[in-house]
Design brief:
Layout: H1 9-17, E1 38-41, E2 53-60, H2 67-75, E3 80-84, H3 86-91, H4 93-100, E4 106-110, E5 124-125, E6 128-129, H5 134-150, E7 158-159, H6 168-176, E8 180-181, E9 186-187, H7 196-204, E10 211-215, H8 223-236, E11 240-241, E12 252-255
Parallel strand pairs: 2-3, 2-10, 2-11, 3-4, 7-8, 9-10
Antiparallel strand pairs: 1-12, 5-6
Signal peptide: 1-20
InterPro entries: Glyco_hydro/deAcase_b/a-brl (IPR011330), NODB_dom (IPR002509), Polysacc_deacetylase_ArnD (IPR050248)
Protein name: Chitooligosaccharide deacetylase
Length: 256
């Protein structure tokens, strides 16, 4: 907080007369205010008399694939939406081939080219530098989409950026490129940092219409075990699973 100092004429005269330094007014701060960030919430439309349904969404940021999760989805014929980066695609051709071979299960969407937060202001989020400009946001989005198509996938219609946080102006930029911004309503694994029991509890919270976000690129993390338990628990409780393109409601957002 900047404090303004006020001195009367007498005080200034006295200070000068005894050789004291006279304070000079402080310069206005040049530090830019922290931008308002939005983390969109997304749910799927509820359908009467069809029973509870959820949308499982997974981020594939970089690294490898968690076969515990991928195998569970395939073996149990559970649909989901996978957000992949160009970085992940470069090293996981076999896993991507499995997804492409099961188009009834896997909807492939855009997680960006280099896993750079799609924020058009220079800053850091969780230690990651943001895109920093509208041009860089567009490059991150389109670079991810081009990588998906180059690998044999369809052009994506949804985008989810690294950290899932945005400025309102970045969201407008993404939408102007023809994409919907994918939020969520339940954070399933807190960036794959939760333990197995914590993840299972998050999944157990799910209600009809929820969109759950988790990660499918951390095979060494305990969180993957919890994701598997959570999925199978939902299935045992009679939940159905849909992809985002099957049924979604308008996006809303909350600011931080």
């Amino acid at each position: 907080m900047m404090t303004t100092l006020r001195f009367s004429g007498l005080a200034l005269f006295c200070a000068a007369s005894i050789g004291a330094a006279v304070p000079t007014p402080a310069k206005p701060s040049t530090v830019s205010p922290k931008p308002r960030l939005t983390e969109p919430k997304l749910t799927i439309a509820q359908v009467k008399d069809e029973g509870p349904a959820v949308a499982l969404t997974f981020d594939a940021c970089m690294g490898k694939v968690d076969d515990r999760i991928l195998d569970t989805l395939v073996e149990n014929r559970i649909p989901s939406t996978i957000f992949v980066t160009a970085r992940w695609l470069k090293h996981n051709a076999a896993a991507f081939a499995v997804m492409r071979a099961n188009p009834d299960l896997f909807e492939i969407e855009d997680h960006g080219e280099n896993h750079v937060p799609a924020i058009d202001v220079p800053m850091t989020i969780f230690g990651i530098k943001t895109a920093g400009s509208s041009e860089a946001v567009a490059a991150e989005v389109e670079g991810g989409a081009e990588a998906i198509m180059a690998a044999g996938g369809e052009r994506p219609v949804w985008f989810r950026g690294a950290t899932a946080k945005y400025t309102p102006s970045a969201i407008a930029e993404i939408q102007s490129l023809g994409y919907r911004v994918a939020g969520y309503s339940i954070n399933g694994d807190s960036g794959s940092l939760l333990g197995a029991s914590g993840v299972a509890r998050q999944y157990h919270r799910a209600k009809d219409g929820d969109v759950i976000i988790s990660h499918i690129n951390q095979p060494t993390h305990e969180a993957g075990e919890g994701v598997v338990k959570g999925i199978l628990d939902l299935k045992a409780r009679g939940f159905r699973f849909v992809r985002l393109k099957d049924r979604t409601e308008p996006v809303s957002g909350k600011s931080f």
